Amino acid sequence: MAALAVVVTLLFAYLFYRFRKSDIAALETTRREVEAAANARAQAEIQRVHEEHAKRIDSERLRVRAEIETEMDEERRDLRTQRQKVEQRAQTLQTRTQRLAERESLLQQATDAVDGLRREAETLQTRAQRLHTTLQSLHGEARLKRDEADRRERDAERREREATDLHERLERQAAHHEAEAERHRLAADDLAGKLEVVSGITRQEARDALLAQMADEAKLEAASLVKEIRDEAKLRATREAKHIILTAIQRTASGLAIENTVSVVQLASEEMKGRIIGKEGRNIRSFEMATGLEVIVDDTPESVVLSGFDPVRREIGRIALTKLLADGRIHPARIEEVVEKVRQEMEEELVETGEKTAVELNLANLHPDVIRMIGRMKYRTSYGQNLLAHSVETARLASLMAAELGLDATRARRAGLLHDIGKVVEEELEQPHAIVGMELLARYKEHPDVLNAVGAHHDEIEMTAMIAPIVQAADAVSGARPGARREALDAYIKRLSQLEETARSFRGVDRAYAIQAGREVRVLVNHTLVTDALAEQLAHDISKKIETEMQYPGQVKVTVIREVRSVAIAK
C-alpha cells in the first residue's frame, strides 16, 4: 500500500509538472508579448513626453529669453541712469576737491601764520624770562646795595660820633696849640726879621724855595719808597704765584684739538661724486636741506668738503655722508633717514660726553641740560682751541690752585668747567658769553660763588667770590699756553700796533716796540724828561692802561729803558 501510494504520488507529481510546464511556456509567451506591447507603449509615451517636454522647454526658453532681455533693458536703463548719477557725483566731487584744495591752501597759510605767531610768542616768552631773570638779579643787587647802604649808614653814624668826640678833643688841643703857636710865631717873626736882614731875601721867597726843595725831595723819596714797596710786593707775590701756578701746571696735562670750519670726507673713487650729486642734483640738494651744510664737490681728487659754522651739524653731516657712501644706497628718502638717525646718535653722544666729563672731574648734581651743553663743547673751538679741552684744563688748574690756597677745590673745579658754557648756548643773545653763561646757570640753581666766577672771569661784573680770581687766572694760563690758540693775522698786527700806540701816548716816551709776538713792550724814554725813579712809575702806568683798554691772551710785559749817552770826538 505504501508503495502504491508512492507510485500514485509520483504519478500525480509528474502530471502536475507536465501541466505546469505547458502553462509556464504559455505564460512566458504571454509575458513576452505583454512586455513587447508595454515597451512599444512606453516608447511611444516617452516620445510623446519628450516632445511635450521639448515644446515646454522651447516655450520656457523663449519666455526666459524675453524676461532676460526685458531685465537687461531695465539694467541698461538703470546703468545709464547710474552712470549719469556717477558722472554728476564725479563733477560734484571734483568741485568739492577743488574747494578742499583751496581750503587746505588757506589752512596751510593759517598754519604757517600760527607757527610764525607761536615762534614770535616763544621768542617773546624767552625775552620775558630773560628780563624776569635780569629783574630778579637787579632786585638781588638792589637788596645787596640797600644792605650795604644801611651798613654804611650805620658806619657813618658811628664815625660821625667818633668824629664829634675827636673834634672836641682837637678843639681843646687846638686852643692849647694856638696859644703855643702864637708864642712861637712872635719868636719866629723876630727871628725872620733878623734872617731877612742877614740873607737879603724876603720871607715869601724863602718859603717858596723851601717848599720847592721839599716837594722835589718828597717826590724822589715817594718814588723810591713806592719802588721799594712794589719790588718787595712783586717779589713775594711773584714767588707765591709762580709756586701755585707752576704746581698746578705740573700736575695737569691735556691734549689740544684744533677744529676748522670745514670737514673733508674721503671717497673710494671719483665715481662716488656723481652718486652724491644725483640726477639733476637731487641727492646733494636733499643732503644740504637735511643737514644745513654746504657740500662742495670740486676737482680735489677723491674727496668732498662739508662747509658750515656749526661744528655739531658738520660732524652730523660727515658721519651721515660716510654711512651713505658705505651703504651705497643714496637717494633723497635714504638721505633723510640716515641724517635723522645720525642726529639722534649725536644727541646721545653729547649726553654721554657730558656725563663722562662730569665723572672724570668728579662733579655731581649737574642738570641734564647743562650736561648736554658740556657735550657740545667738544665740537666748539675758541681761537682754535677746543672748548671742552680748554674747560677741562681750566677746571683742573682752578682746582689745584684752590687746593693750594686752602679753598673749596670742588667748587673751583665746577666753575672752571662751566666758565665758557655761554659760548655753546643755541640762542642768539646779544650779551657777552660770561653773562649769558651766568644767567643760564642761574636758571639751573647753581651756587652763587660759581655764578660769580663764571660771570666775572672777563671782568664783566665785580668779583665777590674767593674762587672768581682763581678761575680767571686758570683761564688765562690755559689760553696763554704757547700753541694753545691761534689768532688771525689782521687782529695780531692790530694788537701789536695798539700796544705800541698805547706806550707812545705817555709823556717822555721816544719809541716803543712790541716784541715776542706781543707778549712784551720795550719802551725807550728821554732821559732828560724821565728820571730813574719815574721810569718805574711809567712802566706801571703803561701796564695799567694796557690792562684797561686792550684785550689780549696771557700777559704783556712792559720794559722801560732809560739810558744816558755821552759822546765826545777827539780831533
Short description:
With 571 residues, the protein is mostly helical. The chain has helices at residues 2-199, 203-250, 271-277, 282-291, 311-327, 332-360, 368-376, 387-405, 409-418, 433-443, 448-455, 468-480, 489-504, 532-549, and strands spanning 262-266, 294-296, 303-307, 381-382, 385-386, 509-515, 520-525, 557-561. Helix 11 crosses helix 12 (468-480).
SSE layout and pairings?
Blueprint (H helix, E strand, L loop, with lengths): L1 H198 L3 H48 L11 E5 L4 H7 L4 H10 L2 E3 L6 E5 L3 H17 L4 H29 L7 H9 L4 E2 L2 E2 H19 L3 H10 L14 H11 L4 H8 L12 H13 L8 H16 L4 E7 L4 E6 L6 H18 L7 E5 L10
Helix pairs in contact: 2-8, 2-14, 4-6, 5-6, 6-7, 8-9, 8-12, 9-11, 9-12, 10-11, 11-12
Q: What is the share of helical residues?
A: over 70%
- Distance between the ends: 218 Å
Tell me the number of helical segments per DSSP (H or I, 4 or more residues long).
14
Spell the H/E element sequence.
HHEHHEEHHHEEHHHHHHEEHE
**Strand count:** 8
CATH superfamily of the domain at 361-484: Hypothetical protein af1432
**Sequence of strands across the biggest β-sheet:** 1-3-2
CATH hierarchy: architecture of the domain at 361-484: Orthogonal Bundle
Molecular shape: rod-shaped
